[in-house]
Amino acid sequence: MIHRHRTLLFLFFVLTFFISASSVLFYAYGYRFSLERGIFIYTGSLSLKTNIETVNISIDGVTLPEKRLGLLNNTIQISGVNPGEHMVEVSVPGYKPWTKKIVIQSGITTEFWNIFLTEENYERTPVPATEQAIKMFPAPNGLFATVKKNETRYSIDVLDTGATESMEVFSTSEAVFLPTLETNIEWSPESHKLIIPLTKDTGPIYAITDIKTKQSYFLNEITTITTPISAPRWDATTKNFLFFLNQGNLYRFNTNESKGIFSPAELVRSQVSAYELSGNKLYYLSAEGFIYETNGRGESEASKRITTTPVTINVASPYSLIVYDETRLAVIEEYAGRLFVFNKNVSSDTLRELGSDIKSLQYSDDGKKLLFYTDNEISVYFNQDWPAQPARDKDSVIQVARFSIPIKNVQWTEDYEHVLFSLGKTIKMIELDNRDRRGLSDLVTLENEPTQMLARFGTDILYVVSAVSSDTPAVFSITLPQYTTLFGL
Q1: Domain boundaries, the chain
Q2: In the chain, how many H helices and how many E strands?
Q3: What would you measure as the largest C-alpha separation in the chain, in angstroms?
Q4: Of 47, 115, 55, 113, which is closest to residue 81 (Cα–Cα)?
Q5: Fewer CB within 10 Å, N- or C-terminus of the chain?
Q6: Contacts of 35 (CB under 8 A, 6+ apart)
């Protein structure tokens, strides 16, 4: 009898083991028993990543147990979610919640790796010595050139944002600071000189200013060229040298004088509609509509033609050439705002027209995306396939936002999955992810429309130029924390 009881007990434990092991395996593989349906359901999972290290998560109004909020590189894995639609909310005290209606599929992880929570109230930090500032331009070494306007007088100050005073290096009452798409104030690579775009009744003029000596020359005068000059750019390969266009000719010029005499400008290329410098390479759009690349700086240097199908050039309009590298570049006809892109991942030789009335554009740091906008629309073009969720195809365009009033100050955030812009007096941020709907947040509402926004990647700082009064700082900053790295460091 005892032997029989031992056998039954052994069989009971064996059966219990197999039932438990099967349940564990079913659970590990994502199966859950549905009491409503009386069957096992193959569940899915959810993966989240946020810019805040610790967050609260709820699914369909139910807050998840704290034990399920383990974080690794700010990635939260939530398994065992039943297939179908769910409402997910991510929240942190002091921040605006992020919510989306999501769809979970059996055996598939649904990823949201670009959740950016914005603060309910951003603290504004005034930047000293920026009274009457209307624009600011960063230098490679961390300084800023600020443009100030006092009635009819324009001045350029050099400012270190950690200091309480600025240094005026240039001023004029006879010209107006009026940058265009093709040029703004440009620092030399060594941060020792500025190119300052101005305009007079006779047309555009450019001041070359030495920061240390505060000595300035007008480019037209020192080159002895009397017809209009346009698009001056510093040569990154040689100190004090710059390029400029004049009547379809591209010149290179030494801004240093020798015994009071400037050397003549050297012709680099003729019949040029636009050009751009990228590292030690020179790219230019010819008058025939082709794009070329050269490593040289002289007229005799050989060029390589990148595109073999030309764009039709409007001789009455200036053009801008924006280069990421020899495989990805863009051209804008400024009068009509026509945008053309060259993407070697799609075609080896042609420029595709994306639209008209384009105001400006910006490549992402990795070159995979191109942000561009009109007065009322923000769009993104994909140079490469984007396999991360939500997946996008190369050579595709998504419209991110459309408004009835003008959009200004459009620019990427550091993750290149969100866009900053201003709409009237309000600074906003919108995400590219259009699953359910795009998250749109108001960051700050100002007393006046901002004239400029400048995000400084790596410091989590957004500078905003918006004057309250003539005797208060016109520039303030807010902190936009980006995604933390491994273990929240």
Answers
A1: 43-115
A2: 2, 41
A3: 119
A4: 47
A5: N
A6: none
H/E stretch holding 370 reads strand 369-373
List the end-to-end C-alpha distance of the chain, in Å, as a whole number: 66
Q: Give every CB contact of residue 338 below 8 A, 6+ residues apart in sequence.
A: 332, 353, 355, 356, 358
CA nearest neighbour of 242 among 222, 228, 214: 222
Q: Look up residue 376 and give its amino acid.
A: N
Closest CA to 412 of 453, 373, 443, 371: 371
Are 153 and 168 contacting, i.e. CB atoms less than 8 angstroms apart? no
Q: How far apart are CA 300 and CA 163, in angstroms?
A: 48
Q: Measured between alpha carbons, how far is 142 from 66 in angstroms, rounded to an integer?
A: 43
- C-alpha 227/C-alpha 287 separation (Å) is 19
C-alpha to C-alpha distance for 489 and 273, rounded to whole angstroms: 48
Q: pLDDT-based confidence at 73, cuts 50/70/90? A: low
Whether the per-residue pLDDT at 107 is higher than 70: the answer is yes
Non-local (6+) Cβ contacts of 125 within 8 A are 476, 477, 478
For domain 43-115, say whether CATH 2.30.42.10 is its number: no
Q: Which amino acid is at 166?
A: S
Token couple for 339: 């945008």
User: How does pLDDT run across 434-489, given as a tens digit for each residue?
Assistant: 999 999 999 999 999 999 999 988 889 999 999 888 889 999 999 987 665 544 44
pLDDT in tens, 193-230: 999 999 998 889 999 999 999 999 999 999 999 999 99
